[in-house]
Amino acid sequence: MGLGLGARLARLAHLARLARLARRVRPHCPRARRHPSVGSVLVYHHTSGVQLPVTLPVTFHTRSGWTEFTPRFYGQPSTLSRIMSSGTAQPLSPVEAAKRDAAYAAIDRHVRPDMQMVGIGSGSTIVYGVQRIAAKTQAGDLGPHIKYVPTSFQAKKLITQHGLPLGSLDEGLRLDVTIDGCDEADEELTLIKGGGGCLAQEKVVAHFSREFVVIADYRKRSPRLGTAWAYVPIEVLPLAYVPERLGGSAVLRMAQAKAGPVVTDNSNFILDWHFRDSKVFEGGPETTDRVKWSLVNQQLLAIPGLVETGIFINMARQAYFGQADGSVQELAAKPV
Ligand SMILES: O=C(CO)[C@H](O)[C@H](O)COP(=O)(O)O
């Protein structure tokens, strides 16, 4: 039976997209220059601000001294997961592999078939988590009834691109679990988040979850917060972007491919507060780090126009840190 007009247009659009992807790369099939053959090309698929390597199966042709190639995957794949299932991903760097291992461990342990709503964090590590969820859903290990609540525009796109059901906090249910990355975590699982500028929504979704689980590579675990990460991202109303009371230095985060500041999903600005020189840390030497960060957080939140901070205290109960050797370290927060 022939394809309907809609299906043919969708296929044409899909082929055009694959061809655009494929043209960006050089074939790594040596025989391609001599005669038609099959092989693969490595492409970088940009999704939600994240660059992922994908190996695309293609047929090579040589014409007028040029090598051309046609994608060999002519199904209906409109999502990244389906494209990836048609090829073999290139080996990941140790850091990327560590992110993937942490994400897979957390998903396998904390996202269960009897759940209803799962929060999806933002950043590059959660991309592997969503891939795992999509694969488990396709395999029937997770039901299609589970809804996924995004913590950002990026997370929303990830969920929909993988064909997963989108949920929202409006539905009034408490989330079963939220899985999210972090920029730095100490041994009490006090976190700095917001490197991707999504901290406000991330904190709200985590707050409405029964469980909040952190996934990260080995660079993110620190004996003390502020060892590896020197600033706290803070979301502020645009009119409140110069909080003089902070001490240290608060730097307005500027956009990379747009003139002017980063504008968050909530239409606010981000200040990266470099806290090491500030005087806001209170308490004597006996005051615990958790209490110090809690006091700092309270002081920040008292500033008019400050929407939310990237300091997450007493929220994460469990963390998974992928290691360079392929193992995954687990860390449980001690009860307060
Ligand atoms: O807080 C975040 C975004 O606002 C991210 O979770 C955090 O920046 C970690 O990102 P990545 O997984 O790319 O290391």
TrEMBL record:
<keyword id="KW-0413">Isomerase</keyword>
<dbReference type="GO" id="GO:0006014">
    <property type="term" value="P:D-ribose metabolic process"/>
</dbReference>
<dbReference type="InterPro" id="IPR037171">
    <property type="entry name" value="NagB/RpiA_transferase-like"/>
</dbReference>
<dbReference type="Pfam" id="PF06026">
    <property type="entry name" value="Rib_5-P_isom_A"/>
</dbReference>
<comment type="pathway">
    <text>Carbohydrate degradation; pentose phosphate pathway; D-ribose 5-phosphate from D-ribulose 5-phosphate (non-oxidative stage): step 1/1.</text>
</comment>
<protein>
    <recommendedName>
        <fullName>ribose-5-phosphate isomerase</fullName>
        <ecNumber>5.3.1.6</ecNumber>
    </recommendedName>
</protein>
<dbReference type="GO" id="GO:0004751">
    <property type="term" value="F:ribose-5-phosphate isomerase activity"/>
</dbReference>
<dbReference type="GO" id="GO:0005737">
    <property type="term" value="C:cytoplasm"/>
</dbReference>
<dbReference type="InterPro" id="IPR004788">
    <property type="entry name" value="Ribose5P_isomerase_type_A"/>
</dbReference>
<comment type="similarity">
    <text>Belongs to the ribose 5-phosphate isomerase family.</text>
</comment>
<dbReference type="GO" id="GO:0009052">
    <property type="term" value="P:pentose-phosphate shunt, non-oxidative branch"/>
</dbReference>
